[in-house]
Automatic annotation (TrEMBL):
InterPro entries attached to this UniProt entry: NA-bd_OB-fold (IPR012340), Ribos_protein_bS1-like (IPR050437), S1_domain (IPR003029)
Location of the S1 motif domain: 6-74
SMART domains reported in the protein's UniProt record: S1
Domain of life the protein comes from: Bacteria
Chain segments carrying region Disordered: 117-141
Protein name: RNA-binding protein S1
Length: 141
């Protein structure tokens, strides 16, 4: 089967260089995976991502006139991932958050807010009184 642009094929890492990895494809053809097409993150050392003789799945990006094949590992992986969002039962989520009447929840919220405000004010006052004041420093000079 001939290799064409857009295909996703399996291969084996034949050689690793500073700028990418050469992958042996079926039919005896070899293609290059540039360092920027290995992962979505910055890669300082390719050897931390790939090893020689490792099996990889690649996408054929293009084949130029000279027969050079450009490949991508990260684009082959993104195609495998499901693009369908997770199903959420909103009715069940709503019921889970309904732990009492509105008045009960409002009362709880107000109590927690008041406690947080008191804690904030206490911390603020301790920072103010714990330090020194400029007026005191000037008076001592």
């Amino acid at each position: 089967m001939p290799i064409e642009e857009g295909m996703i094929v399996d291969g084996i890492v034949a050689n690793i260089t500073k700028f990418g990895a050469f992958v042996q494809l079926s039919g005896g053809k070899t293609g290059l995976v540039h360092i920027s097409e290995i992962a979505d993150t910055y890669i300082k050392d390719i050897n931390s991502y790939l090893k020689e003789k490792q099996a990889v799945r690649v996408k054929v990006l293009n084949i130029d006139r000279d027969g050079k094949i450009n490949l991508s590992i990260k684009q082959a992986q993104t195609i495998k991932k499901s693009t369908k969002p997770a199903e959420i039962d909103w009715q069940q989520e709503f019921k889970k958050n309904q732990s009492g009447s509105f008045e009960d929840r409002l009362s709880k919220f107000m109590k927690e807010s008041e406690e947080r405000l008191q804690e904030f004010m206490k911390n603020r006052e301790s920072k103010r009184s714990g330090g020194y004041s400029r007026k005191g420093d000037i008076a001592q000079r």
